[in-house]
Hints:
By secondary structure, the protein is mostly helical. Helix content is 58%, strand content 6%.
Amino acid sequence: MNKTIETQTKPFRLITIPVSHYCEKARWALTKLKFTYVEQPHTLPFHLLATGRVGGKTTPVLITETGVFIDSTDILRYLDSIAPDNAKLYPTDPDQHREVEELEDLFNSQLGPATRRWGYFQVMNSYKIMQSRWCQGVPFFERALFPIVFPVTRSLAKRKLNINPESAEQAYEKIKSIFEQVNELLADGRIYLVGDSFSAADLTFAALAAPVVQPPQHPMQRVSYKELPPNLVSEINAFRETAAGKFVLRLYRDRNS
Length: 257
Ligand SMILES: N[C@@H](CCC(=O)N[C@@H](CS)C(=O)NCC(=O)O)C(=O)O
């Protein structure tokens, strides 16, 4: 962990399931901090071959010459530790630093699972949507095997992520309550969630809320509205109308600046 970026001779490698919002969190941090990296996208269950080889399981996994980071928060902390002083994702002020970590933890542990559960519940029975979401950018042979592995992968994912009508309803309520908390924070007119600069709290909220807001500038291609169930489109529009939803849209408009 003490090696500095000057000693990194090759680009970082980021193993992803491209559609994953936790992967988007790591990808956004790499882009924001202007680190050179190569993304290695995989679909389920083939990601396990790539992550297992370096001692991980879930994605994202960041491979550096310093070490391997197998959790999105650890990835952000590592990148922040080697980022220049004027580009930190965690404030130096101890109170603000704690606030950022608390919000990041709330979004990671509650918002991320809820948006994933609710989002998958809406579209998991559509082969066409799932193929376009899970196969984007992945190696040819994984795409070719998708029709064979998908039925099994889908039922395993449904079981592992506990996707059913009741849990989806609870997830929806959880998303609304976290959006409400963010609306309250933003009610005083602040530009960012903590302090006056972009932090890991903003990035984590926007990346993990993206599945229910569908920002047009998201680097992963969206499913056309025409293909989505009409009730899902109106729910997305309702989330976009909230202060928290508008905040996500704004952060995505500025994502690459
Ligand atoms: N706490 C982890 C969660 C990552 C996570 O849940 N990744 C999912 C994709 S959204 C994954 O890789 N699932 C595949 C699996 O569990 O094998 C992080 O923040 O990195």
